[in-house]
Amino acid sequence: MYDIILAFITSFALTYLAIPSIIHLARKKNLMDEPGERRSHKVSTPSLGGIGIFAGTLFSIILWTPFNYFGPLQYILCAFIIIFLIGAKDDIDPISPSKKFLGELFAAGILVFRAKIKLTSLYGFFGIYELPEIASILISIFTIIVIINAFNLIDGINGLSGSLGLLITVVLGSWFFLVGSIEIAIVAFSLSGALVAFLKYNITPAQIFMGDTGALLLGLVCSILAIKFIELHNVLKDSPYTFSSAPSIAIAILILPLFDTLRVFILRVLEGRSPFSPDRKHIHHIMIDMGLTHMQATGVLFAVNIMFIVLAIMLQNVGNLILLIILLGLAFIMTLGASKVVEKKKSTLQH
């Protein structure tokens, strides 16, 4: 327990102290995120906050993880470093999507093959339970890359990625603590401490953005936490803290980034465009177009994510597939409703 609290405090303190220096250096060297047509900000803003998040998280994990727990963590930290290097390079000097994808694939491969962070069962989805080894590897790598990019895609307004990341790491970190998985709880709370410090500088008016460095690291950690959460249910049969429908509850915890990514990809394909082509179709753009400020939109989306988590826990006994259909159906209806409000507002303004 004390290790987890100390990990949170250490990470918070280091990130809190590092970010002002990063802001100063970014301004001095003109490493700024410029406003643009798809951007939601109006002034040039430093985008290297992820460096502070990475430093606080990594230092805290290494300092406070008891040595006898350190086994697979060395491989997790290797994946962290790969993701950090890709993100920092992209923030300072943008790289091609293919090179970024290869880096993410390498990090995911380390997690799956060395840290053994992989999905071994579909828990009855489509009648499938235990997965063959090759299917387990492919699905796990796909899942990690999807979650990494989902966080990269929702990082579009002040406070959103940081607050959702904080919610996810605190919820899952608390669960890992309760089931005695101390090393993973330390990873979760080290990141949450760094995110609290970062949010101090990221709420409107934002002094810094997390950039790809922060968003990719956040996605990587959340993918690790989600997969470990699902897989630990295989060995925690008699624990009072296990859930029915664990995969669907994991999806509920990550619902906002996952559903938003799925939604915009489908919309882009239906329009005959590449799913990776940028636009203003993300849920946070809809919130801004409804007339909300950055912090109001972040607050609404944060509350909605909490609602989905509570709903999934309440309905956990209906079964994985039915629960997933309920979650996706509700998310679709809510997003459709918000989109209709924006369309009505635009048509009113035009007339």
In short:
This protein is an all-alpha fold and 351 residues long. The chain is built from 13 helices and two strands. The protein starts with a helix and ends with a helix.
Description:
- The chain is mainly α and 351 residues long.
- Helices cover 71% and strands 1% of the residues.
- It has 13 helices and 2 strands; from the N terminus they run H-E-E-H-H-H-H-H-H-H-H-H-H-H-H.
- The chain has helices spanning 2-28, 49-64, 73-92, 97-114, 133-154, 160-178, 182-202, 211-232, 246-253, 255-270, 283-289, 294-314, 320-350; strands spanning 32-33, 45-46.
- Strands 1-2 form a two-stranded antiparallel sheet.
- The radius of gyration is 20 Å and the shape is globular.
- The N and C termini lie far apart (60 Å).
